[in-house]
Amino acid sequence: MNMELNQTVECTFFASAFNVNDLQTITLDQYIDQIRSKKYASAITRLRAEYLAGHTEEGDKRKKKLPLLVAGGIMKGGRKREHLVRYSRCIIVDIDGVPTSAEDVLRRAEGLPYVKAGHISASGKGDKLFILVDSDLDLHLPAFETVCRKLENDLPGIVIDYCGKDPNRGCFVSYDPTAFYKEKSEVVPVRAEAPPAPQKHVPASAIPSSDGALGNYMNKFETDNSFSSGNRHTFVMKLSGALNAAGFEETEVKRECLSRYAEPGFTEKEIAGIVSDIYTRYRSSHGSNPYCPPEHRKPHQKLKSLKSLPDPPDSEEADEFEEEGVDIEPDETLLPPFREEFFQSLPSLIRDILAYARDDTERSVLLLSSLAMLSSVTPHVQGSFARKEYQAPFYGVVIGESGSGKGCVASLFKLIASWQRYVYDNSRCEVKEYLRKKEEYELYQKLLLRSGGKKPTGLAPENPEPVKQMNLNISGYTSLARMIEQLETNSHYASCLFETEMEAVTNTLFQDYGNYGYLLNQAAHHERIGNSTKTNGSLLASYPLLSMLLTGTPEMFRRLVPSAESGLFSRLMVYKIAGHGEYRPLTSEDDTPAAAHYFDSLAERVLDIGVHLDKHPTWVHFSDTQRKRLNRYFKQEYNNVRVFGHEDVASAVLRYRLAIFRIGMVLTAIRKGETLSEEKDWVIRDDDFEVAFHIGTICLQHTYVVSTSLKRNKKELRYKMPFISQKIFAEMPVKFKRAEIRDAGHVLLLSKSSVDRLLTSAEKNGLIVSLGAGYFHKTTIGKEISVPIIP
């Protein structure tokens, strides 16, 4: 071993595992400095507390939200192996199992001359070690195995996670004041072993095989596919893909593959890694082509590879309601919560509201819900968007299964109750004054009539202008005529429609007396709303201001918004709670009234803010930098949904820009109210823009997922993996064959006709050019299409 290799290790740091575009290049010593500091101490302490309490699932959720480091080198445009543009020759080893303690193993590892750096993992139960090697990227796997063997010899009893075999392997940040970094360490030499002599593979029929369906399936696969030196990796990949689609469990497949195919030069670790990788990457297609026993199989049907899996039906009915991929149960990968790192920069009022939450789900639900309700307490807060004047009120909707945690918003009405009472009481005084003047006028007219036209002494009272009672609280059970009248009466104050039972709106919306869907669409943009009937006469709301917050189950939401092409759908900020929730135990909080009245004191602060804003008008706008970032992001999103067959959500994509602007207006208004500033012109603060952008893009991701449940013309509610077409196109090389993209679509159950339509659309929109003979080449625009990411 030597020390001649450049000891500066350049790595890639991702702010989130879900956003591959938010990255930066840092050195390994800078990363270790962050681990030693208290930068992530708070998040790591909470995560370890969850693991210590046995809440593994909650701990895993928290860990997935942490930033991560790829020590393998510098990456551009993504986190896959093909995005690695410069290899660092640094191997990261993840020690999951330790014989004593993580601290003890780390100290022993520090004493090894070839270990460059190390720290205790985020969970606190293992270690992360960094070792330099003298080999290039094409020998990363042998280098990884060499390093693992050395560590297993020098640190007896440790258990290494083989998933670290990939150079693009990520390492979540941690907090460890004892983390170490050496300016100089020994470099581990890696020898390129000569390929082993070809060995004839013993067919499964010659050895005892499983009597079950898995064994039969693998036997059949082996009869038509060759397992030989030079083809072993591809063979196991194809087999794993077929077994995954057939519905066999990963643990069964891994065990059977190890027993059949492990041999010198093709280790158990490599086989296990291949199987795990295929099952992880294609988990959405698991069980999509269930295996039928031979006696039920059609005659002469052979399974040679993934290509021979049968196509999904291409009938007219399937085309009419064609969906991307198979049914899924959306989890936090597709429906991410809002990231905790943004919470600390929120105004103090919002932070205090979020303190009421008991977990991440409630925190995310309360964040969107409270902003939607507070948007109704922003009098005279205005801004211009796309050459039109807007105010802050917006619509939010929280969707979740029964018992999923959406009920935490029920108490939020208290947050704006004092403000609504303040407006109501002031209006009541004005109504009383109007009635007094009206009575004086009518009395004067009676006296005038009795005196035969002779004017009584004193000044004649004027006939006062009618004054109606303001009421900012609007129920879901309200008629269209009454709602128009109330919106006009409330003048420049925003009304708030808040219903924790979405069916209150749904039931009224489709009644003749209700039917205010048109009103909701118009009010979202302050567009005039009119109604004229024989019973109610002519009514007009010239500049309606309305915020709305609804919660309900997925089935309730589908009744409210039957189609993604509905105008209301594109005007909603959607948050869908992942999963089905969990039991929340009773606690000692109920021993005092404090928890039940938590929002009462916050309501007084909201009232003070509202009163201050009412006296001092506010004009809010983006900075040039913020506007450019918004344009870059949404231009790409808009083009993607149009090119890749999701035109039904194109209007939602565009309207999310306005939603982000409105959230920025709400945050700005709160800050103005908290500081009692009288300034009129406000540029949205950069930290407030980051919060608004994050909330908007996360809700847009939820909108994409929820939209897939609205496309099917079937009774049962189903979700799909959104943007599979875009994913397939983005993962194609610059030059590819039609057969290649069809195979990729086949794995994810996209029919050949769907792939062909994708190619036609891509060519029409200038993303590819045809080279003839089934070959295509991506244009400059086509190369910019990236794999869909979660913000």
Q: Topology, please?
A:
Layout: E1 10-14, E2 23-27, H1 28-36, H2 41-52, H3 56-64, E3 68-70, E4 73-75, E5 84-87, E6 90-97, H4 102-110, E7 115-120, E8 127-132, H5 140-154, E9 159-160, E10 170-172, E11 180-181, H6 213-224, H7 232-246, H8 250-261, H9 268-281, H10 316-320, H11 348-354, H12 360-374, E12 381-385, E13 388-391, E14 395-399, H13 413-450, E15 473-474, H14 480-489, E16 495-499, H15 503-509, H16 517-523, E17 529-533, E18 537-541, E19 546-552, H17 554-560, E20 572-576, H18 598-615, E21 618-621, H19 624-643, H20 650-675, E22 681-683, H21 686-708, H22 724-731, E23 735-737, H23 738-747, H24 752-764, E24 768-772, E25 775-778, H25 780-783
Parallel strand pairs: 12-21, 14-19, 14-20, 15-16, 16-19, 21-22
Antiparallel strand pairs: 1-2, 1-3, 3-10, 4-5, 6-8, 6-9, 7-8, 7-11, 12-13, 17-18, 23-25, 24-25
Features of this protein?
five-stranded antiparallel sheet
Task: Kindly describe this structure.
By secondary structure, this protein is an alpha/beta fold. Helix content is 41%, strand content 14%. Among the domains are: 10-181, no CATH class; 206-310, no CATH class; 416-551, no CATH class; 724-783, Winged helix-like DNA-binding domain superfamily/Winged helix DNA-binding domain (Arc Repressor Mutant, subunit A, Orthogonal Bundle), CATH 1.10.10.10. It has a five-stranded antiparallel beta sheet with strand order 9-6-8-7-11, sandwiched between helices. Strands 15-16-19-14-20 form a five-stranded parallel beta sheet, with helices on both faces. A four-stranded antiparallel beta sheet has the order 2-1-3-10. A hairpin with a 3-residue loop joins strand 17 and strand 18 (537-541). The longest helix is centred in the middle third of the chain and has 38 residues, at 413-450.
